Amino acid sequence: MKPKKPVKYIFVVGGVISGLGKGITASSIGYLLKSAGLRVTILKLDPYLNVDPGTMNPYQHGEVFVLDDGSETDLDLGHYERFIDVNMSKNNNATTGQVYSTVLRRERKGDYLGATIQVIPHITDEIKRRILLVNNPKKYDVVICEVGGTVGDIESLPFMEAIRQMSVEVGYHNHLIVHVTLVPFIKASEELKTKPTQHSVMKLREIGLSPDVILCRSNYPLTKQVKEKIALFCNVATTHVVEGKEVKSIYEVPLVFDKQKLGQIIMNRLELTGQPQVTKLHDFIARFKKPTYKVNIAMCGKYTELPDAYKSVLESFIHAGVENDARVNVHWIATDKIKTDALAEKEFGDIDGILLLPGFGSRGSEGKVFSCKYARENNVPFLGICLGLQCAIIDFARNVCGLKNANSTEFDKKTPYPVIDLMESQRAIKRKGGTMRLGSYSCEIKPKTRAAKEYRKKHITERHRHRWEINNRYRNRLENHGLVISGINTELNLAEIIEYPDHPWFIASQFHPELKSRLNSAHPLFRGFIGAAVKYNKLKG
Fold first, then answer.
1. What is the average pLDDT across 339-345?
2. Could you read off the pLDDT of 429-447 as tens digits, one per residue?
3. Which residue, 120, 139, 143, is CA-closest to 131?
4. What percent of the chain has pLDDT above 90?
5. Would the pTM count as exceeding 0.90?
6. By 3-state DSSP, what share of the chain in percent is helix, strand and coil, each rounded to 5?
7. Dihedral of CA 66/34/125/155: which sign?
8. 191-197: long-range contacts (C-beta < 8 A, 24 or more apart)?
9. Residues 240 and 319 grouped into a single domain
10. Which of 283, 315, 349 is the last residue of a domain?
11. Each residue of 153-175: pLDDT tens digit?
12. 401: DSSP letter
């Protein structure tokens, strides 16, 4: 019987400033290792005290990425899934809030037998437990851990100490530390400055960690001299100073790393066999850079000035664009400015497709309804997501079914026709965090519908994040006026997909299709939507 190979751990930490792309770095390393035939998963360690980002303002944290198991997680987990094509779970995201909550709950139960609870060992032990938990049972060869924040932050110190302990416990050839740092270019002197990187590494050493690979973010190419200087003062091999240059697409980053042999460097250090295979990614990037067609898509929503709030939608456009040989040009539309049909005409006159974004709250809701109306009446390809479906129903009820002042009870509690209403299961809920309809639910697709054509299957599962839904009391009336409910959750009797049969391409879903689009496989609804937009653009001439 062959002894089991030890699990390898890669820790991705950042210095100098946040926002340097640790998530993309971790995802890209994951892509290279998986392409070499290794089983890979990725864990995000977040130092904030919130239990999860579910109740955080998008301006604070960007998109909330929902997993199959209903966990509300950091948007970086979306990158992980898209790059390595592995479904994450609640075990792939750990926050300081979760760590402390677990330890304090155990203390209250008496699990520590009256001991004084301290950061070391109790908090650090819990962090280590969570790092190990992501690979229980041991089905992965490599666990990549991304630590949020920057080296030296008070909030990050327990995570760094836990990593220091783990690096000793697992041994030299079973762990590797990647330090992501900034090498700024000073225009006045026209030179790259290495001091921020040197100081960042010094801070890392102060807490007992030394980088094995230094990944340098810079807008300018690193010269040989700069790399040698960083290597000398930071005690790494020159070949281990890797350039993280700006690229047109995040999916090009693994190719940048592969060109510098990063995958092979990591595998050699961790005593792993294999060779990264990036031919398919080269093909993807080639199609992305030189598409045949271009389409203009209107993104209608609440946080249009904050692209990170809709990160998964934007990435889904890239996947679907490549599969349709098209470049997707996004036009951000703030729906609170659309107050009449004339204003809708002004906003959408040159648009090839309208996507109504998910969200909560009444701000801009009437503009969203006008957007649905414009798409419906003018045969413009339309995709509505979550709130997008609900606004499409409001438009249809008002303007096709004749239900004047129909609305959602989220926007108008006194509406005479509550065609969208709070789910029964949500009525008694007071606590906000993690209490919505969250995660993966099944859906039966009605045959001979647009949805059936796009999915090419009868049964699907999709991810949800909502409290309001189509009011079943109005379903017959809506259907009698021509609305097709093409997807239903039969267990809960909930409408999941709607479409207009007399429209070239008008689909809306209660679920979030953007959460399941992948680099190697665009989501069917996005693929179909962009395909319809290409066709619409051609017809316009």
1. 92
2. 766 666 788 999 999 999 9
3. 143
4. 84
5. yes
6. 45, 20, 35
7. negative
8. 192/218, 192/220, 192/222, 192/223, 192/226, 194/226, 194/229, 194/230, 194/233, 196/15, 196/16, 197/15, 197/16, 197/230, 197/234
9. no
10. 283
11. 899 999 999 999 999 999 999 99
12. S
pLDDT tens digits for 179-209?
A: 999 999 988 888 999 999 999 999 999 999 9
For residues 523 and 157, give the distance between their C-alpha atoms in angstroms, rounded to a whole number.
39
Q: Give the integer Cα–Cα distance in Å for 464 and 328.
A: 25
Rounded Cα distance between 519 and 281, Å, is 9
Which one from 300, 499, 514, 523 is the annotated catalytic residue?
514
- Which range of residues forms the domain containing residue 192? 8-283
* Domain co-membership, 277 together with 298: no
Alpha carbons 84 and 334: distance in angstroms, whole number:
34
| 203 inside domain | yes
**Predicted local confidence at residue 3, as pLDDT:** 52
269 and 317 together in one domain: no
Structure tokens at 420: 């969208």
Peptide bond between residue 121 and the one before it cis (omega within 30 degrees of 0): yes
Last residue of a domain, one of 251, 283, 315: 283
Q: What are residue 237's phi and psi, to 5 degrees?
A: -65, 145
| Residue 309 shares a structural domain with residue 325 | yes
Q: How many domains does the chain have?
A: 2
The CATH code of the domain that includes 87 is 3.40.50.300
What whole-number distance in Å separates Cα of residue 112 and Cα of residue 104? 10
Strands 8-14 and 191-192: unpaired
Give the active site residue among 145, 386, 401, 443. Answer: 386
Domain shared by 153 and 224, yes or no: yes
Q: What is the pLDDT of residue 1?
A: 42
Q: What is the pLDDT of residues 396-408, one digit of tens each?
A: 999 999 999 999 9
Amino acid at 49: L
252 and 320 inside one domain: no
Is 233 in the same domain as 349? no
Known catalytic residue at 190: no
Is 3 inside a domain boundary? no
Q: State the CB neighbour count (10 A cutoff) for residue 110.
A: 8
| DSSP annotation of 410 | T
Summarised one tens digit per residue, pLDDT across range 444-503 is 999 999 999 999 999 999 999 999 999 999 999 999 999 999 999 999 999 999 999 999
Phi and psi (nearest 5°) for 192? Answer: -85, 135
The number of CA neighbours under 13 Å toward the Cβ of 284 is 21
pLDDT in tens, 115-160: 999 999 999 999 999 999 999 888 999 999 999 999 988 999 999 9
Average pLDDT over the chain reads 93
CA 338 to chain centre: 29
Catalytic residue check, 459: no
Q: Is residue 1 included in any domain, yes or no?
A: no
Clarify whether 234 is annotated catalytic: no
Given the residues 79, 175, 512, 523, select the one marked as catalytic.
512
